[in-house]
UniProtKB/TrEMBL annotation:
Gene: modB
Natural source organism: Campylobacter sp. CCS1377
Cited InterPro entries: MetI-like, MetI-like_sf, ModB_ABC
Domain ABC transmembrane type-1, first and last residues per copy: 10-216
A Pfam family matched in the record: BPD_transp_1
One Gene Ontology cellular component: plasma membrane
Taxonomic lineage: Bacteria, Pseudomonadati, Campylobacterota, Epsilonproteobacteria, Campylobacterales
Entry function: Part of the binding-protein-dependent transport system for molybdenum; probably responsible for the translocation of the substrate across the membrane.
A GO molecular function held by the record: molybdate ion transmembrane transporter activity
The protein, known as: Molybdenum transport system permease
Keywords, comma-separated and alphabetical: Cell membrane, Membrane, Molybdenum, Transmembrane, Transmembrane helix, Transport
Membrane topology: Multi-pass membrane protein
Length: 223
């Protein structure tokens, strides 16, 4: 019989990952399209900002988010007073932090997929008078299925496994911000190895399945 706290924490973890991946998909398509097909004056700067979470220590990002959106900061007070939103130690804060931290895991595979679309298909669409929006939805996205799957799978898995950023901005409030990666740490601190193992094995199994499916899909569509 599984512990109710265990199930609740897993539910919160997967809920965070689903919401983050869903929102990131639209942000990722927009940014990947800009980086792939639009001549931006500061393209290198945009690419650097998108990729920065890949090399930035999670605790650094979490620290600056915590400082920027705390109740005593200008941004924190502005959001609370005018929008009634608080990002520190709340689920909304977890989603916001996850969107930033998982951004390159969505954008990079999409950009690679968009850049690989046959240029003749794009030229044919534009020659027929089709708009850029039409070409995006009817030519680019259908020819980027593998990249879209990879981007969504990697973003979901990365969000599930977040630790540093989640710990800094969300803390570990049961039922509100406590996710599985933090729960493992908490259970180890109280020497509850059984429950820590349940969390760890669940994340291990999920990561294995996601990676296996990625290789399977890539092999199936690239042969």
């Amino acid at each position: 019989m599984m512990d109710s706290d265990f199930l609740q924490t897993l539910y919160l973890t997967f809920k965070l990952a689903f919401i983050t991946t869903f929102i990131l998909f639209f942000i990722g398509v927009f940014l990947a399209y800009l980086l792939s097909f639009v001549k931006l004056p500061f393209k290198s700067l945009v690419q650097t900002l998108v990729a920065l979470p890949l090399v930035l220590p999670p605790s650094v990002l979490g620290f600056y988010l915590l400082v920027s959106f705390s109740a005593n900061s200008f941004l924190g007070q502005f959001l609370k007073e005018y929008l009634n939103i608080s990002l520190v130690f709340t689920f909304q804060g977890l989603v916001f932090a996850s969107l930033i931290f998982s951004l390159p895991f969505m954008v990079n595979p999409l950009q690679s997929a968009f850049s690989s679309v046959n240029k003749n298909l794009l030229d044919a669409s534009y020659t027929l008078g089709k708009s850029k929006i039409y070409t995006l939805f009817r030519v680019i996205l259908p020819n980027s299925k593998v990249g879209i799957f990879s981007a969504c799978a990697m973003s979901f898995a990365h969000t599930v496994g977040e630790f540093g950023v989640v710990m800094m901005i969300g803390g570990h409030k049961k039922g509100e911000t406590l996710v599985a990666s933090i729960a493992i740490y908490d259970e180890l601190e109280v020497l509850n190895y059984t429950l820590a193992h349940q969390y760890a094995f669940t994340l291990f199994t999920l990561s294995f399945i996601i990676l296996l499916s990625l290789y399977f899909v890539n092999k199936k569509f690239t042969l």
